[in-house]
């Protein structure tokens, strides 16, 4: 379990509202189904897209964390920065490609839920570029047609690390962290809030140290 919950919406949200939901481990999910005349592709996200593409990946802790970190990076950011983060989300979580054992794999929900677009992406007709958030954030997102360009990462971890570094370049006068116990976001903007976080980290490290000591003792016995 990753802690993500699904919340129904009637349609598209603004990039800021959608990413803010991710920051709180909330994924907003549409409720309608694609038309039966074209079951292999939908120009807008439908229930099939959400349940077949997004939900299985959000159940995986590492992927869920990746999605949440993009959301956290958007809190308090400028409209321009939010749009860039949303575009990076679009070309990773929605239409991302990565390599696995040297072979090209799709992990984006928009590809996993659309046979037609998946075939298009891997047919050689579309351009496939190396994922670089600085470049990707300026790419045009196609909403009602297939994408002209897809971005590939060496691995999913590679994409996550690049997004973390990119998020650090976004200016805001504070940083944030998610508290899983209260399911809220803490704003780190002064010494008191930072000291509180340090105490929490020390407590977690004490637990790790205790676990290692017990494991070491068990192995010796």
Automatic annotation (TrEMBL):
Domain Biopterin-dependent aromatic amino acid hydroxylase family profile: 1-216
Binding site for L-tryptophan: 12, 34, 42, 113, 143
Superkingdom to which the source organism belongs: Eukaryota
GO BP: aromatic amino acid metabolic process
Keyword field: Iron, Metal-binding, Monooxygenase, Oxidoreductase
Family: Belongs to the biopterin-dependent aromatic amino acid hydroxylase family.
Gene Ontology molecular function terms on file: iron ion binding; tryptophan 5-monooxygenase activity
Name the UniProt record assigns to this protein: Tryptophan 5-hydroxylase 1-like
Pfam families in the cross-refs: Biopterin_H
GO cellular component term, pick one: neuron projection
InterPro entries with a match to the protein in the record: ArAA_hydroxylase, ArAA_hydroxylase_Fe/CU_BS, ArAA_hydroxylase_sf, Aro-AA_hydroxylase_C_sf, Aromatic-AA_hydroxylase_C
Cofactor(s) the record lists: Fe(2+)
């Amino acid at each position: 379990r990753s802690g993500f919950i699904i919340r129904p919406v009637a349609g598209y949200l603004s990039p800021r509202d959608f990413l803010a939901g991710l920051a709180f481990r909330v994924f907003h999910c549409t409720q309608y189904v694609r038309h039966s005349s074209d079951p292999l592709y939908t120009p807008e996200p439908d229930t099939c897209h959400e349940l077949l593409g997004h939900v299985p990946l959000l159940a995986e802790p590492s992927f869920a964390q990746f999605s949440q970190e993009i959301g956290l990076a958007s809190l308090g950011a400028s409209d321009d920065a939010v749009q860039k983060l949303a575009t990076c989300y679009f070309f990773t979580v929605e239409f991302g490609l990565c390599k696995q054992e040297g072979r090209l794999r799709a992990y984006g929900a928009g590809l996993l839920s659309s046979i037609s677009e998946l075939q298009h992406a891997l047919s050689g007709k579309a351009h496939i570029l190396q994922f670089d958030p600085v470049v990707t954030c300026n790419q045009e997102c196609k909403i009602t047609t297939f994408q002209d360009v897809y971005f590939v990462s060496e691995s999913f971890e590679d994409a996550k690390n690049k997004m973390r570094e990119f998020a650090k370049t976004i200016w805001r006068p504070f940083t944030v962290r998610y508290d899983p116990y209260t399911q809220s976001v803490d704003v780190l903007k002064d010494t008191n809030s930072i000291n509180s976080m340090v105490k929490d980290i020390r407590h977690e490290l004490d637990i790790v140290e205790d676990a290692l000591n017990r494991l070491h003792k068990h192995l010796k016995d």
